[in-house]
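Please predict the structure of the following assembly.
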Amino acid sequence: MIFRNIKYFVTQGVKGLVSNSLMTLASIGIVVASLVLFGVFVLFGLNINSVGTQIKDQCEINVYMPNDMSRDDVRAIGSQLGELEFVKEAQLYTKEERLQNYKEGIRQDQAAVITTLETDNPLRDAYVLSLTDVRQANQVAEQAAKIKGVEEVTNRQDLIKTILSITNTIKHVSIWLLVILAAIAVFIISNTIKLGMFSRRKEINIMKFVGATDWFIRWPFIIEGMILGALGAGIAVIVVMAGYGSVLPSVQGFMGNIKLLETAEISDIIVIGFLLMGTAIGMAGSAMSIRKHLHV
Amino acid sequence: MIEFKNVSKTYEDTGVQALNDVSFFIDKGEFVFLVGPSGAGKSTLTKLLIKEETPNSGEITINGFDLNSLPKNKTPYLRRSIGMVFQDFRLLPNKTVYENVAFAMQVIGASRSEIRRNVPNVLSLVGLAHKARMKPSQLSGGEQQRVSLARALVNKPPVIIADEPTGNLDPDTANEIMQLLVEINKRGTTMIVATHAKNFVDEMHRRVLAIENGVLVRDEEEGTYGYDI
């Protein structure tokens, strides 16, 4: 009985879509437009979030020693740094190691520079502090600077703050955008369903007289709305994924060693999220019409 | 089987009192004509029977349903026990004769095999088995009313309410439809026919309930129409 009815509801829902094709297309179009626009913000937000995490992971405090300090003194300071609160590890990079790293990073045609550097290494011994809590970076930097013998301390806390604030702004804008776009989509879908109800009012009237239950009359319209929403979401998924896939390589080119999210990493959240949202928007549109116009 | 006890109905929006203290009892298998001038309250009475309207006071019982205490979500089950036939047939133009009748079974969740068994039977009963694949627009008025009657019968309701079933038909066709109603009544279905067809009421000598200005003015066992047309 239930399966038989489901088949009937779906058939009727699809019939409703086909018989009202112009409004169906308009509804699907508005769902696609809403979700694509929302998708752009979501992808932007997800990437900013990921970039933020990567930078946070790279958030280390560099503590530089005077160039002429003996290695023993440097190590003594290193053990003090390791004991500071919120410091996970204090890793020493000697000026020789740092020069070696630098040499590996520059091009062969700059060999003359290397020769100069090797004779008179201007780099200093440095400790790189990794932290247990990156939010305490400023406090740790201050503590480190107070240790006698430390020449300079640098940290990237400001950059992290900026990124966190951008991420938050995008989150808020995305949510508001979704609410507004979803409201528009719900309104358009509810009008489509309303028209469907109007064109089938005679049928509905007969259904009532022969004893169809209220839900039996409602379900085809709810399913019609759900199909509208899901179709729109499906198209939006294709547009967003294809668009992201095509711009990703060129944007990644500008980002250096900071990795943007791969298409495969976002596909689950986009596909599942969009389909759920599209279907929910469709259901909400139908429910609104049914409540207002279908007096069963 | 059907009982009205001191039923009154006033429409709140217009203030019109459509029924005033109406009481009657109709037994199982009776054939009853409901007569009276236009606007007397016949339509209100039929609307109360299928709970399309609710009375302001009084009690209505039909097929074991106490309409005063029947919750809204149980109304469909009441309606499944009443077959409705209308003056304007109310057929779906895009469905065939078969589909129009099958639709009444489909919407109450009947199985495909039940539909395949019952629809041809009921179409044979109303004499339309050979036109099952036609659309209503291809049928005469009388044939359309037969389809509407088949649809009312297909779920085997104990009661049929026909609201002006011959109102749109020529005399010969009207006679055929009325004979069909009598035939169905003989098989045990209680029949309530609201009509202005004086000739049928006068000739058939059936029970007559006459309503004027919302008041039941006559309840005669073998009554007549009683009004000039």
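Chain A touches chain B through 17 residues (CB under 8 Å). The longest helix of chain A spans residues 157-199.
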